[in-house]
Amino acid sequence: MGASLPPKEANLFKLIVKSYETKQYKKGLKAADAILKKFPDHGETLSMKGLTLNCMDRKQEAYELVRLGLKNDLKSHVCWHVYGLLYRSDREYREAIKCYRNALRIDPDNIEILRDLSLLQAQMRDLSGYVETRQQLLTLKPNHRMNWIGFAVSHHLNSNALKAIDILEAYEGTLEDDYPPESERFEHGEMLLYKISLLEECRLFEKALKELRRREYKIVDKLSYKEEEASLLVKLNCLEEAEKLYKVLLTMNPDNYRYYQGLQKCVGLHSESGKYSPEEIDKLDALYKSLAEQYTWSSAVKRIPLDFLNAEKFRDAAENYVRRLLTKGIPSLFSDLSPLYNHAGKANILEELVLGFEDSLKKTGCFPGSLEKEPPSTLVWTLFYLAQHFDRRGQHDIALAKIEEAMQHTPTVIDLYSVKSKILKHAGDFAAAAALADEARCMDLADRYVNSQCVKRMLQADQVPLAEKTAVLFTKDGEQHNNLHDMQCMWYELASGESYFRQGDLGRSLKKFLAVEKHYADITEDQFDFHSYCLRKMTLRSYVEMLRFQDRLHAHAYFRNAAAGAIRCYIKLYDTPPKSTAEEDADLAKMPASQKKKLRQKQKKAEARAKKEAEVKNEEANVNAVTKSGKRNVKTVDPDPLGEKLLQIEDPLIEAGKYLKLLQKHSSEYLETHLLSFEVNMRKQKILLALQALKQMVQLDAENPHTHRCLIRFFHKLASRSAPTNDAEKLISGVLEAERSTFSQLHGKSLMEANTVFLEQHKDSLMHRAAAAEMIYCLEPNKKAEAISLIQESSNNLVSSNGALGSVKEWSLKDCVAVHKILVASFDDQDAALRWKTRCAHDFPYSTYFEGRLCSTHTTDKASKQLNAENGGIESNPSNGKVEKLDAMKNLAI
To answer: Can you tell me the distance from the alpha carbon of 145 to that of 142, in angstroms, rounded to the nearest whole number?
Structure first.
């Protein structure tokens, strides 16, 4: 580098490089300017100056200088390397790879460029290229351990584990000492465990076990050694030996569920489905009883039998397990037992059992059959459990009665308020749930979890400003947006995005959903530094696991919800685009003069308020915080806080398609993915793609109401299309006609007949009836009254669980709300919607959506009217309305 310069300037050039590496950027700039003063066209100096400026956030100047340097010295590998580094800093990895390859054409044996290229190839999963680069690095520097390991890992990632094993064995052959030095013992042991995992992956179990035992003295991580040995013994069917090893592991950690599963495999009593024969249940029962005698302090050994025991044995085991935890006052008991509620019989036994505890504790202060007095707190936790139990079964009246009784007994337990908030949420009273969660939060202002639960309830109640003020209590400097975004607080952004969507604020909703998508892009970027770090530290098993996790990153539930939310926003934006200025002026011209004046005043106030808020934020942003290093940090201001720029796009469906592709690639097993694909492609008039989405939906869940609705809509639209006019349209029409016969629901039937059959098959399901009714109206609009009556005649009978204890409503609040929205949006019948609302208000008395008689809104309005009557009809101060309403909700909740 800098070879074309005189000695003095060549030394200055070396100083620039050293200053860049040590982050002394001002010193590097000074040296670069000294060279450029004498040699203004020196390409490598121009490039290094640009790279230095890039680190000082002067990107535009940096790109100009680097391009000028490259133009002046096109055959310099330094200029190409620097150009690649510039692209890499901006995450333009493909362009950076091109630059590195150009640099290698000039200097093919440059180790630094090859190393940088290998990192980018690993990041972009160019695995064949990664193998080639790693091989070249090993050839150039075979005495470097990292090159051997990198070459082995590259073959493993490229699905050639056997080759990776050969490389690791060849590397071991180059080592002189049989025992690694003390400073490298852990790294060498990790390499050996990685090699054994490769042998296991290749199903060479005998060789892996032999190698493991032969290298035992070199492996530092003894726990991983024992776990790997036990796993290999099971796979080799050496069950007796594996059983002894799992018992040794259980003495080390008797609450590790994986060890119990391994032990069950050893004794031939493991089932992936969780179903066992009576003989197997008896053997498992005996096994866990013997283990319970050995590990008396273990919770897992007492909890696991509840999953496979039945009838009286389950009752006895559950009684012993639950009694102990109720006495200790374990708040998470219901969460621990909630998987058992998937078996109705076990849920009934638990209900009967805990109700018996409650009765005995109230009468005698003891558990049934016991003379030992329980502490008063045992009754509180028993009521606490029962409240969650009845909430799970949809019996909110009983659940609220139990939790209120517990609160009267001990009003200082925060968990009671949190659970009552959850019950009210499930009952549909989101406002009261938020108020009660806030009450719980105020009882312990230092508890981040309770604060987060409160914020979540507020967002569910669409109280976004209040939720923001509450969330900032646990953020740095009380600044909400940047800190929560920097902390990648995705649950908050998803919940607020959903809230804004419900309120019709598409700009802010999109902003929150796209922020989550940005976090996943950052997580993908975060893996970059580990490509060299993990090879250096030899954490190879964790490294490969991390890369495989990254490959399925976009299948995560948070990303799926964010992408689906963004797509729904774009669909709604396409269906109801914002009005243009001309349209707004036309609407304004139609208004009376008095309304125009009020609207203008309102707009002026809103503009003034927004301007004032922007000025305050700018003032805050301009306040420089001086750090210990002497640098000044300036707070960044959000240029688009309302998300208005996100709405200013020409074609929302194109934007929706970007996220749809990711969902189709990573979340193809979810019905919602294909439902969104169907909706987007129908609007795009991409009939074949819509058909493809429809076929996927039928394959996943043919009986789903959404699938049926899409099926009828699709072929009804095809039937209403005009006759094909050209060869392409005729070809598509022929394909669609042929595909129609592949749907068994439509085979030999008209659309109305298929809809009738669907209704007969699912006449007891509310959502299926609503879907069938909607399709009747779609196919024959003159049958609107008949379709609505089909919904109105649905019965909400109370059905008992196994005909035994308690009854559970067949309808859910969520389904009833969806049906009401269908009556409003699809049928456009306000009278029918009002009748449905009145009916559901009776069935869901706590629901604020249906304004039930017990909901906080109804109670607050009633209290307000009574207060006005007592004050002689004088209304309270309107400015305090929201505060009074919140206080009333809190009082109601308490």
So the answer is: 8
CB atoms within 10 A of CB 184: 14
Name the amino acid, one letter, at 301: V
Strands 632-633 and 798-800: unpaired
Beta-ladder partners of 799: 808
Main-chain dihedrals φ then ψ at residue 4, nearest 5 degrees = -80, -5
Q: How far is CA 8 from CA 151, 212, 246, in A?
A: 41, 58, 69
Q: Determine the CATH number of domain 7-188.
A: 1.25.40.1040
CB-facing half-sphere around the CA of 388: CA atoms within 13 A: 21
**AA letter at 869:** A
Listed in sequence order, the DSSP H helices in 269-392 are 278-294, 300-303, 305-308, 311-328, 333-337, 344-364, 376-392
Please say whether the beta carbons of 174 and 183 come within 8 A.
Answer: no
User: CA torsion 29→30→33→37, rounded to 10°?
Assistant: -170
pLDDT confidence of residue 584: 52
Asked whether the CA dihedral 434, 435, 436, 440 is positive or negative, the reply is positive
Which residue's entry shows tokens 């699905």? 159
Confidence (pLDDT) at 625:
44
Q: Contact 33/48 with Cβ under 8 angstroms? A: no
> What does the longest C-alpha to C-alpha distance in the chain come to?
100
- Under a CB-based contact definition with an 8 Å cutoff, are residues 155 and 164 in contact? yes
Angle at 825 between CA 820 and CA 827, to 5 degrees: 85
What's the topology of domain 488-576+643-667?
Answer: 1.25.40
Closest CA relative to residue 715, chosen from 741, 697, 683, 696: 741
pLDDT tens-place string over residues 297-356:
899 999 999 999 988 899 999 999 999 999 999 999 999 999 999 988 899 999 999 999
What end-to-end distance do the CA atoms of the chain give, in Å? 75
Task: Please report, for the chain, the start and end positions of each structural domain, with discontinuous segments joined by +.
Answer: 7-188, 488-576+643-667
- The ranges of the chain with pLDDT < 70 are 1-3, 178-179, 477-482, 579-591, 593-594, 596-600, 602-637, 797-810, 858-894
As a whole number of angstroms, the distance between CA 150 and CA 530 comes to 12
Q: What is the pLDDT of residue 479?
A: 54
263 beta partners: none
In CATH terms, are 7-188 and 488-576+643-667 the same topology? yes
Per residue in 96-141, pLDDT tens?
A: 999 999 999 999 999 999 999 999 999 999 999 999 999 999 999 9
User: Looking at the whole model, is its pTM more than 0.90?
Assistant: no
SS3 681: helix
800 forms bridges with which residues in the sheet?
A: 807
